[in-house]
Amino acid sequence: MRVLVVEDYRPIQQAVAKGLREAGFAVDASGNGEEGLWLASNNDYDVVVLDLMLPALDGLTLLQRLRAQGRSAHVLILTARDAIEDRVRGLDLGADDYLVKPFAMEELLARVRALARRAYCAKNPTLRVADLLIDTVRQDVSRGGDRITLTAREYALLEYLAMRAGQVVPRTDIWEHVYEFSAEADSNVVDVYIGYLRRKIERPGQPALIHTIRGAGYSLRGPS
After folding, report:
1. Which CATH architecture has domain 2-119?
2. CATH of domain 126-220
């Protein structure tokens, strides 16, 4: 899952981005509203963590313009403004959740995970594809009861495919949702990581779960 953090106070921006990356998210970050709006307008983020007091363009204006463009990324407002009228205005303008500073990182991560699941209509924190189980809170993966150890990037890729289980997911979608803006594009990096996942997830004599759809992308699904 890919998250944009728009926060001008550098220590908070760095702490939030670090916490999200350690939790397996791909994270882009910006310190001003104009750049944040450009990033949110030109990339498909699953969640935007948005401060309200920003230089160049305030957070509520950014949110209004984002929604006017038809962008549907879930927005978590992160701000020191705790008045009821501020919360109501933010939610009425299109925010999905509101968290007041100071906050606990564990709560922020839980809220971001919930918003990311909501983007794919997945309310259950445990994703199941055939006998493959993915606990999105603990980031535990098992198949047939056997635990599978994945790297952070492998896990992020698997979780994204599981969120869209049964669908054909184009390589471009995988790149846009799993990799950060600063990452170097490589024409075959997605294919390489799909290969890593297959070696860890597939089992001899058991149905394949990751399917290549030639010319289209990949699909994670159980046997029909």
Report:
1. 3-Layer(aba) Sandwich (3.40)
2. 1.10.10.10
- Say if CB 110 and CB 98 are below 8 A apart: no
Domain locations in the chain as residue ranges? 2-119, 126-220
Q: Is the pTM higher than 0.90?
A: no
Closest CA to 177 of 199, 197, 162, 196: 162
DSSP 45: -
Averaged confidence pLDDT in the chain: 90
Inter-residue contact 32 to 54 (CB < 8 Å): yes
Torsion sign (Cα): 60, 66, 70, 73: negative
Q: Please state, in angstroms and rounded to a whole number, the distance separating the CA atoms of residues 208 and 131.
A: 11
Q: Which residue has the higher pLDDT, 142 or 189?
A: 142
